[in-house]
Specification:
alpha+beta; 23% strand; globular
Length: 186
């Protein structure tokens, strides 16, 4: 059973076949893919969704499809994943997101990621959740900071699954159970 999460404005849910077309449009959008090595073809996008759905079916959680309640049926994904590479911080669970450009600037990434973190700490009883992005992705870094995640430059790393390119260097943000709980009292 796949857990589905709700916020006042958003539904984080299992992927549906009709999500693939708008997701393919997102992954072909140069603005959405600015911080990735390249845009994706429809075949690459569908294969990516397959890789999202497999662990979600097994675990009951993962990178949920996100829709606006009473609005857009699909705006991207937000959720939890296990990084598929070895690094100084793995094994780990990551909180991540990718939203359509039309969904930017509404606070959706922070709202949905906050609910994913609540699930990670309250339901999965994780000790820590990480997030990472390229150094220059200021929008995602701002979301990480709004979530209460902290950055130590000593944790930064070259992403081992990416080719040699100028944006291979990644920043790592972390939040632990205690940091999550203290957010409400700050």
């Amino acid at each position: 059973m796949i857990h589905e999460l709700r916020t006042p404005r958003l539904a984080l849910r299992a992927w549906r076949p009709e999500d693939r077309e708008p997701f393919a449009a997102m992954t072909a959008d140069p603005a959405v893919m600015e911080h990735f090595p390249a845009t994706m073809t429809r075949e690459q996008s569908d294969a990516f969704v397959d890789r999202i759905e497999a662990p979600m079916a097994a675990d009951g959680w993962g990178l949920w499809a996100v829709e606006v309640v009473g609005g857009d049926r699909f705006i991207g994904y937000v959720g939890l994943a296990r990084p598929g590479f070895e690094a100084h911080f793995t094994p780990a669970v990551e909180v991540g997101w990718r939203l359509a450009a039309t969904a930017w600037g509404h606070g959706y990434a922070t709202e949905a990621a906050s609910e994913a973190l609540r699930f990670a700490f309250d339901e999965l009883a994780l000790d820590e959740v990480v997030s990472f992005t390229i150094v220059g992705n200021v929008r995602s870094r701002a979301v990480m900071e709004r979530l209460g995640m902290t950055h130590d430059p000593a944790d930064d790393f070259d992403h081992p699954n990416l080719p040699e390119w100028p944006q291979r260097r990644h920043v790592l943000y972390r939040i632990g159970q205690a940091g999550w709980l203290s957010r409400g009292s700050a």
